[in-house]
Amino acid sequence: MLNGDSFAKQFGGGDGNYADWFLLTIRGFDTLNQDIGTVDFYLADYRFGDNSQDYIVDSWELVDLSSLGSNLASLQFEYSSSDVGEWGMNTPAYFAMDDFAAVPEPSAYALLAGLFTVAAVALRRRR
Hints:
- The protein is α+β, with helices and mostly antiparallel strands.
- Helices cover about 15% and strands about 25% of the residues.
- The chain has a domain at about 20-100: Protein of unknown function DUF4465 (Jelly Rolls, Sandwich).
């Protein structure tokens, strides 16, 4: 995206004025595999009127998925780009993910604590 090659164009073009973009869409599903929403994250964005705001993500960035709700069970990752040719997207379709963490809501902690208490009482009664 930064320099282009024989398959993919240089984002922004030579003068930086082309409105190119590379979008990662994260789609969430619940336990019944129902679509519960999406979160968009631009991995590159050259759509700004001021070229100094154009960027290609080159560092670790946090992506907040809390808008997908507490019933989230699985994720699907989709790519789209402004650089599309006769055989599909020319932009290399990959990203890196690290330190993925699911943080339970406080109500989940309360449920786990309640289950632990019930299990402890049941074990004590057995003895």
